[in-house]
Amino acid sequence: xxxxxxxxxxxxxxxxxxxxxxxxxxxxxxxxxxxxxxxxxxxxxxxxxxxxxxxxxxxxxxxxxxxxxxxxxxxxxxxxxxxxxxxxxxxxxxxxxxxxxxxxxxxxxxxxxxxxxxxxxxxxxxxxxxxxxxxxxxxxxxxxxxxxxxxxxxxxxxxxxxxxxxxxxxxxxxxxxxxxxxxxxxxxxxxxxxxxxxxxxxxxxxxxxxxxxxxxxxxxxxxxxxxxxxxxxxxxxxxxxxxxxxxxxxxxxxxxxxxxxxxxxxxxxxxxxxxxxxxxxxxxxxxxxxxxxxxxxxxxxxxxxxxxxxxxxxxxxxxxxxxxxxxxxxxxxxxxxxxxxxxxxxxxxxxxxxxxxxxxxxxxxxxxxxxxxxxxxxxxxxxxxxxxxxxxxxxxxxxxxxxxxxxxxxxxxxxxxxxxxxxxxxxxxxxxxxxxxxxxxxxxxxxxxxxxxxxxxxxxxxxxxxxxxxxxxxxxxxxxxxxxxxxxxxxxxxxxxxxxxxxxxxxxxxxxxxxxxxxxxxxxxxxxxxxxxxxxxxxxxxxxxxxxxxxxxxxxxxxx
Amino acid sequence: xxxxxxxxxxxxxxxxxxxxxxxxxxxxxxxxxxxxxxxxxxxxxxxxxxxxxxxxxxxxxxxxxxxxxxxxxxxxxxxxxxxxxxxxxxxxxxxxxxxxxxxxxxxxxxxxxxxxxxxxxxxxxxxxxxxxxxxxxxxxxxxxxxxxxxxxxxxxxxxxxxxxxxxxxxxxxxxxxxxxxxxxxxxxxxxxxxxxxxxxxxxxxxxxxxxxxxxxxxxxxxx
Lengths: 560, 223
Prior knowledge:
heterodimer, A: about 550 residues, alpha/beta, FAD/NAD(P)-binding domain, 7-stranded mixed beta sheet, 17 strands, B: about 220 residues, mainly alpha, 7 helices, about 50% helix, globular
């Protein structure tokens, strides 16, 4: 590394190169600020993409004992497979603890791009029913801005990222800047029609961060299927090949990989962040980088961990934690309630050949909406994701030639699985585990979270409503699911450094600056006030751009 | 849902980790001397050590590994291996396409079982032993030595189980059906993930055939 890299003072230090860190680096660097982007993991290359490799070329065909040994937590993620498990953190190097009766599944990547390399790509706007939820039902707190404040930033992000989807004019799910939608199957067309006719509910094709026409130099999706193994045409959005690339191209951004950030350094006299200290992942050397502003985009729990590990004499309970709520109000969507069935009358045979659509359907929230009125058993609501289509039937009964034939005859399935709002609750939190350190000697987290009664009631309702809708669509063999995964399994963890106007109740101000330390920003999911039920990444990216534009303004006014 | 991430198990891992790390550090330091925290090309493999890539990401092709002419079972005994071959050949025989035997289903399962937990290994063997003990009970010899007709007679009731009577035995799962079901699902996975199995399902070897077309029926068809 050239020596001057760590000698100079940058305008902004961005920690984390995933969906939000990539945007922060791009936005700030393109505005002319000198940016250093720190990533805890290594660089990533398109040469390691494996989306076109058939399973039979894998030694264990996705049953590798190596995953079990080094990634007992990560393997709980559907996207962690024998193809790509090295992208996920090694659980032996990255421990965390939980109370025995409050398990949490923390699924993460440390590599340029972070989880944007393997994310589910579903991209939905929040509405004012979400931003002002507390005003409507009295639970928790409103966000410190409204939909109108964020809408222009949703536009900016969507236009750049490329979101395939269809406009629906639904009050719960604002439309956005869409590329042409992907097509629905016969079963989905039928579900859409009957669910609208019988229940007045909206089922739409998934809105996904996948380009369906040439877009910003990226080729349209070629429908091979498994995006989470990489994409040789960069058709799904991941930060290394879009935002991070742009940031570096600007000439104003320096990327340092293998920089595991330990804490933020403070200038206590000025009450300003003056940089961050990191541990080199490979050499274990401790290094310091200096900047006029620090922007944490490390992922909700990781950013909060950095702040908790940055305690000073002035901030003994964690940096920027005079409110005492840092680490609290951890949320993750409750997921699992739903139903599945079969459309036995749709005679379409399954195909082993592409096109494989890397997207599903979305059924918009219909509980506790302005027009539906109040549900008697729970507040807030859930949306369904799922799909319908023919698939091979390995579970067919029998044996011999008859079995082989039945497998190929297949089964036309249909399923709806709910993602429900996780209520912000002070008692769901993370803190530093004083007895646990990671492989770099950095104190690790103790995470304590459980879904509550509201979430359970929601998932029971989701099982019933999904079954009703499948039945209305003519499905047979319907099975209902009302149980749900442990927190973390939705991989939509948000909260722990929530934003709001009152410095006594919130960690961050309405522009993601710490109330206590104004040149310290956190723009990833930790700023969330309430989880809503929509997948969070799109909103996190829009919030990041909004916060960065505000920071750029401050630089222009020499106010940092 | 399993109780994941419990305090006990993760703390135990944490204490092991320092030993694991220090050994790997030595390798890393040797391979990456001077290039750590490199600012070089952000998207290059040059600074990535091979052990930080999966075999698939390194481009390894393990599809021929099971075809080794000197192959010997590592987990199964020779007898168990022969029983598994006979059983897989009854469940997925060669028809106008190759079956489980040609797809070397037994070899793949032997490989996977080698890395499985002691519990799943025992479950597998218990199920395989059940087939042989039924064979002994009904025909006085082991399954692999039966005629194809006798093998079929033995397996058919397990493969097409009677629905339990609503009035009688409704809470009693048939252990034979469970043992057979476990073996069959593992054999099916092994077969349909093999190249022969992928071709059996009709895969033409392509990764793209243009955009997804979806429903092309008239709009009134699915009302």
